[in-house]
């Protein structure tokens, strides 16, 4: 917030003269002047900055010109910037070179060409953590817990997620051949790629001992996801649900604004989350109104993959006494990032602040310290590859017990 302070005319004139003098000196330097003309404090700042820039330029020039093998100057710059950001030892801060940034923007799009799965890397290849309903992968029989070990003849063992995903993606209508491991059983699938609209929110009705419950799953906090969750919640309530389960398992987060929108569906007023950073004042985000009745019982399902914006929602619902949390300890990401595009076509994705639950709890920098994350009210987990969703069964029993 900027506040205008009244100033006397003389003070303003002095300030204006000082600015003109500094500008004149800088212009003089640009057109042939010398830093020695500057007053001592300004001369020191100017010379130090110029010297540092010159050193970097000299090193790049020497390597590009005299190194015994050919060197790409742009690659040196990109690797140097990446190393500088990596030296922060912050798992959430990254330098994207132009090609990586373009790939990142494509991944952030809700419309992709592929087979419709969410994966994470493991030693043997890609572990399938989610299969989108109605997708080519679902029709081919891929399931959560399967491991994709090969794409065509290329092994995915110990390869990066970007490399492996780039092999699976492709123009719609083309085929991709996957070798899939399910336990000890290996099979080969030929799948036709398609344009995939990544689902964000989905819902269905469940029945527990004759009581109708609404199950709403949210996979990420992209633009408009709060409105999608609201639509799904209203739909299951319209069809007779007397209690709700919000499934945020494996939800890695996303937009802060959508987290506030989602929490506001269930919390009528008051604090949802607060944020603070070294260069940013503390900001409190309040519920936006229009919440459903607080008499409708709610359970939030979480696991270690529940992170960032998903933890904001979980923490708000738990701290405000609006929901019980069922599952395992969440990931513990209590920091947020900004992405700043750079003139070279790359971008800097870096941590700029922390967020806090309504009770003032910061969730940590990524499960790296004891006490990070959110502890569930009721512990429950589902074994990977299990045909029974044990955690969901516990959530059903918990929310049904709250119905009066």
Short characterization:
The chain has 404 residues and is of the alpha+beta class.
Q: Could you describe the 3D structure shown?
A:
With 404 residues, the chain is α+β, with helices and mostly antiparallel strands. It is built from ten helices and 19 strands. It has helices spanning 9-30, 40-66, 73-86, 98-107, 136-140, 161-168, 225-238, 256-263, 309-319, 390-402, and strands at 94-96, 111-114, 117-122, 125-131, 147-151, 154-155, 175-182, 185-192, 194-197, 201-208, 211-218, 243-247, 271-277, 280-286, 298-302, 324-327, 335-341, 347-356, 378-379. α8 (256-263) packs parallel to α9. The protein is globular. 32% of the residues are buried.
Lay out the secondary structure.
Layout: H1 9-30, H2 40-66, H3 73-86, E1 94-96, H4 98-107, E2 111-114, E3 117-122, E4 125-131, H5 136-140, E5 147-151, E6 154-155, H6 161-168, E7 175-182, E8 185-192, E9 194-197, E10 201-208, E11 211-218, H7 225-238, E12 243-247, H8 256-263, E13 271-277, E14 280-286, E15 298-302, H9 309-319, E16 324-327, E17 335-341, E18 347-356, E19 378-379, H10 390-402
Parallel strand pairs: 11-12, 12-15, 15-16, 16-19
Antiparallel strand pairs: 1-18, 2-9, 3-4, 4-5, 5-6, 5-7, 7-8, 10-11, 13-14, 13-18, 17-18
Helix pairs in contact: 7-8, 8-9
């Amino acid at each position: 917030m900027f506040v205008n302070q009244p100033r006397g005319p003389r003070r303003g004139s002095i300030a204006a003269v000082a600015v003109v003098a500094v500008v004149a000196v800088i212009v003089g330097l640009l057109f042939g002047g010398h830093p020695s003309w500057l007053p001592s404090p300004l001369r020191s700042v100017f010379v130090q900055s110029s010297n540092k820039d010159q050193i970097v330029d000299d090193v790049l020039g020497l390597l590009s010109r005299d190194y015994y093998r050919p060197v790409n100057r742009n690659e040196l710059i990109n690797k140097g910037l990446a190393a500088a950001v990596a030296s922060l030892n912050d798992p959430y801060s990254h330098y994207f070179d132009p090609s990586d940034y373009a790939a990142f923007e494509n991944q952030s799009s809700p419309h992709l060409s592929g087979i419709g799965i969410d994966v994470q890397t493991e030693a043997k290849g890609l572990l399938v953590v989610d299969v989108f309903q109605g997708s080519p992968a679902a029709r081919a029989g891929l399931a959560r817990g399967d491991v994709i070990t090969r794409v065509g003849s290329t092994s995915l063992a110990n390869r990066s997620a970007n490399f492996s995903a780039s092999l699976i993606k492709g123009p719609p209508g083309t085929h991709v051949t996957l070798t899939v491991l399910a336990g000890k059983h290996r099979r080969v699938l030929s799948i036709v790629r398609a344009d995939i609209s990544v689902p964000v929110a989905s819902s269905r009705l469940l029945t527990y001992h004759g009581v109708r419950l609404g199950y709403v799953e949210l996979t990420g906090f992209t633009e408009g996801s709060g409105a999608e969750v609201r639509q799904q919640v209203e739909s299951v309530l319209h069809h007779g649900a007397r209690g709700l389960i919000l499934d945020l398992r494996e939800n890695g987060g996303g937009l802060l604004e959508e987290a506030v929108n989602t929490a506001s569906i269930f919390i009528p007023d008051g604090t949802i989350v607060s944020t603070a950073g070294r260069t940013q004042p503390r900001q409190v985000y309040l519920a936006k109104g229009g919440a459903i009745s607080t008499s409708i019982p709610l359970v939030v399902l979480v696991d270690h993959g529940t992170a960032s914006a998903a933890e904001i929602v979980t923490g708000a619902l738990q701290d405000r006494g609006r929901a019980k949390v069922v599952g395992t300890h969440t990931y513990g990401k209590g920091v947020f990032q900004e992405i700043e595009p750079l003139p070279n076509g790359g971008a800097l994705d870096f941590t700029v602040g922390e967020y806090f639950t309504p009770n003032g709890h910061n969730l940590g920098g990524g499960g790296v310290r004891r006490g990070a994350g959110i502890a569930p009210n009721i512990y429950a987990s589902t074994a990977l590859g299990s045909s029974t969703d044990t955690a969901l069964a516990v959530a059903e029993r918990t929310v049904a017990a709250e119905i009066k």
